[in-house]
Amino acid sequence: MSSLPLIALHGYLGRPGGWSAAMEALGAVSTSTELPDLPGHGPSPWLPRAQGFFGIVDELAERLPPRFHLAGYSMGARVALALALRHPKRVAAALLIGPNPGLVDEASRAERARWEEAQAVRLEHDGVAAFAEEWARLPLFASQRHLPPALLARQQSERLEQTAAGAAWAMRHLGLAAMPSLWPLLRRAEVPLRYLAGALEPACEQRCREAAALSEGATFRALPGAGHNLLLEAPAVVAEELKQLMTWSER
Predict the structure, then answer these.
(1) What does the DSSP 8-state code read for residue 39?
(2) Which of 33, 38, 59, 229 minimizes the number of CB atoms within 10 Å of its CB?
(3) From start to end of the chain, where are the E strands?
(4) How far is CA 88 from the centre of its chain?
(5) Which residues of the chain fall short of a pLDDT of 70?
(6) What is the spatial distance between Cα 62 and Cα 123, in angstroms, rounded to a whole number?
(7) Which pairs count as long-range contacts for 117-125, CB under 8 Å and 24+ apart, including other chains?
(8) How far apart are CA 162 and CA 169, in angstroms?
(9) What is the three-class DSSP state of 68?
């Protein structure tokens, strides 16, 4: 059993319960596990005092144990990657599920900023329920449509636990447009990084493969037949990867 706690971060509009299937498959391999809500998430969202993406990441780090294993999915994976890069002495190893290390040109950033602001305004105007219905229909989640309806309903119920104000805040402050590009920092990564991506999301698979190639000791795995949300589509594989990462990093 690992002597270090495991911190696992959910994705946008998610809740800690999104990790439940993976954690059940993982079993007791750590002395403790913490599944915090990301800033802006949950029925009583925490809104950091800090300004800027890195400031928010640093404030989140203040709320975490002195040293830990780290995992993140999607938005949570981007936050986790930033945590590992900015606080390498705190993170023993990190499992990153479907992260985007950042936008590299200003035109893409400006386009993304317009899209994210439109989503935030829609949240504030239409409310969480209507927004969540549209969010579930994004092409990003097309690979989930074959999953059992009860599983999808549980995921949607977690989305409905958000507040419109909190989810809009998270879109504006933790969205891809707000995050500085992490690509230049990857060559100096001091933390063992393990990237996972579903092969049914080719763009993400390619980004993760390229990101892993930039950091010494980083590794990558693509999962055939799976898409963006591996917590939902392949929880047993996520558990397997976590177990291997935690065991390896404490040798």
Answers:
(1) T
(2) 59
(3) 6-9, 33-34, 68-73, 91-97, 193-198, 219-223
(4) 18
(5) 1-2, 28-31, 248-251
(6) 29
(7) 117/172, 119/168, 119/171, 120/168, 120/171, 120/172, 121/168, 123/164, 123/167, 123/168, 123/171, 124/164, 124/165, 124/168
(8) 11
(9) strand
